Amino acid sequence: MRELINDGELEPRARVNESELTERFGISRTPLREAIKILATEGLLELLPNRGARVASISRTELEEMIEIVAGLEATACDIACRVISDAEIEAIGVKHDAMIEAWKARDEAPYFRLNREIHEAIMLASRNTKLRSLYIGLTGRIQRTRYTAHQTDEQWSQAVDEHEQMIRYLRARDGDALAAVMRHHIRSKKPVIAAMYGEEDG
């Protein structure tokens, strides 16, 4: 269920269909309802009195605050990664980057978004910092789909690609300060776009 929410198959405010999910997972309602309670404590689901549950919505303020923290975590990962990353890891990220650029040129969104996410996660993994990665995974679940699909115009998409080009250059140069600065700007620049597309009004 967590994956369905993180991948966007279950969108914010969507009702949880227990009958459909029990059939899909091949389980009874009891373990499903236990899972629902756990996901509610994590903030992924909202329990509705006598009406089941729905996927939690995210206020604009909360969304912007989460993105700011993610920007800090990823910038820190960039700084650390540049000190410990191996040549093989840099090469693997470079291969993903080249494939992502090809997907962008073809306007093939699905592989572009997947590769984009994999690049960010690979840099985080290359930091070798398990505590940092744990915080990152715990926070990004609720906004993972929105942050990688939120580009409203060709200009905004092109800007994101340009920033990725800078990021790969700094990674290859192992320039942690420069990579961290670009990464922080890269993530922060999406705040207004994501908030406008997916954030629920406060109040």
Notes on the protein architecture:
- There is one protein chain.
- It contains eleven helices and two strands, in the order H-H-H-E-E-H-H-H-H-H-H-H-H.
- The protein has a two-stranded antiparallel sheet.
- The longest helix is centred in the middle third of the chain and has 25 residues.
- It is 71% helix and 4% strand.
- With 203 residues, the chain is mainly α.
- The mean pLDDT is 89.
- It folds into two domains: 54 residues, Winged helix-like DNA-binding domain superfamily/Winged helix DNA-binding domain (Arc Repressor Mutant, subunit A); 139 residues, GntR ligand-binding domain-like (Four Helix Bundle (Hemerythrin (Met), subunit A), Up-down Bundle), CATH 1.20.120.
Topology diagram in text:
Blueprint: H1 2-6, H2 18-25, H3 29-41, E1 45-48, E2 52-55, H4 60-84, H5 87-105, H6 109-126, H7 130-140, H8 144-149, H9 154-172, H10 176-188, H11 191-198
Antiparallel strand pairs: 1-2
Helix pairs in contact: 4-6, 4-7, 4-10, 4-11, 5-6, 5-9, 9-10
Radius of gyration: 18 Å
Strand percentage: under 5%
CATH topology-level name of the largest domain: Four Helix Bundle (Hemerythrin (Met), subunit A)
Number of domains: 2
Q: Given this structure, which CATH class of the largest domain is correct? A: Mainly Alpha
Query: Kindly state the mean pLDDT as a whole number?
Result: 89
Distance between the termini: 28 Å
The CATH superfamily of the largest domain is identified as GntR ligand-binding domain-like
Number of strands: 2
Described by the principal axes of the CA atoms, the overall outline is elongated
Largest sheet: 2 strands, antiparallel
The assigned structural class equals mainly alpha
Poorly predicted sequence stretches spanning 5 or more consecutive residues: none
Percent helix: over 70%
